[in-house]
Design goal:
Radius of gyration: 17 Å
Distance between the termini: 39 Å
Largest sheet: 6 strands, mixed
Order of helices and strands: EEEHEEHEHHHHEHEHEEHH
Number of strands: 10
CATH architecture of one domain: 3-Layer(aba) Sandwich
Strand content: 25-35%
Shape: globular
Oligomer: single chain
């Protein structure tokens, strides 16, 4: 049974039909990436899974249970965390306070919160160096680390990552993707949206290609890396 299963999902922004009956699955332990042009529906897919958007039709199942009728905070409690596009850190809170916000599902369990924070600092040593610094004073790369770290504070089974490399220098992009690999190696399943299709396909197990709200291609990531249509449309090759 797939950890995440999406069936015939339709979602709208007002009158705009953003998702037009998509189907996809993510198995436990996988990295699955969604690639496609701007406006293809990639971010909308993540936002629908995490409960920020309610679908008009279709279903989202997590661990065999339907979750698309649950509010976003309940979906976090089920085991899904979302690191959104644009980082969206709390600029007037410190790094530690930002991380603690991600651990609200743990209630007042200080021991568990501290343990999760140690795990995040182990993954991102730079955040530990900046733990008393305000989120708004961090560099773009550090804010991206903080956004991912905050999502990990809830110890999710499934991590939704939306454009983690957006706006980062090439050296930082490599570091972020190395970290995504490490997070997956530690047992977290990942659904990744990423404009850098080549980098995403290199670390993913499988991929789905979205165009105007529909899945038009899917398969093992290495196969899509070699697919002529993908190479021309998304990898900049002639």
């Amino acid at each position: 049974m797939a950890l995440l299963k999406i069936e015939n999902l339709h979602a709208y922004y007002g009158h705009v039909h953003a998702l037009k009956g998509i189907n996809l699955e993510v198995e436990e332990g996988e990295v699955v990436t969604l690639i496609g042009a701007n406006g293809a529906g990639k971010t909308t897919t993540l936002r629908t899974v995490s409960g920020l958007i309610r679908p008009r039709e279709g279903r989202v199942e997590f661990g065999g249970q339907v979750i698309n009728d649950k509010p976003a905070h309940r979906i976090v409690e089920e085991g899904i965390s979302h690191a959104p596009e644009g980082r969206q850190v709390f600029t007037t809170l410190t790094v530690t306070e930002n991380l603690n916000m991600g651990a609200y599902t743990l209630g007042g369990d200080r021991e568990a919160i501290e343990e999760n924070r140690r795990r995040v600092f182990n993954l991102f040593p730079r955040l530990e160096e900046r733990k008393n610094q305000l989120g708004g004073t961090l560099s773009g790369g550090e804010q991206q680390m903080l956004s991912i770290g905050r999502a990990l504070m809830a110890r999710p089974r499934l991590l939704l990552l939306d454009e983690p490399s957006l706006g980062l220098a090439p050296l930082l992009v490599k570091a972020i993707f190395d970290t995504v690999r490490e997070i997956n190696a530690r047992g977290v399943t990942i659904l990744l949206v990423e404009q850098n299709a080549r980098a995403a396909l290199k670390i993913a197990h499988r991929a789905y290609v979205l165009e105007t709200g529909k899945v038009v291609l899917s398969g093992p990531a290495q196969d899509l890396l070699r697919d002529e249509r993908v190479r021309k449309a998304y990898l900049g090759e002639q």
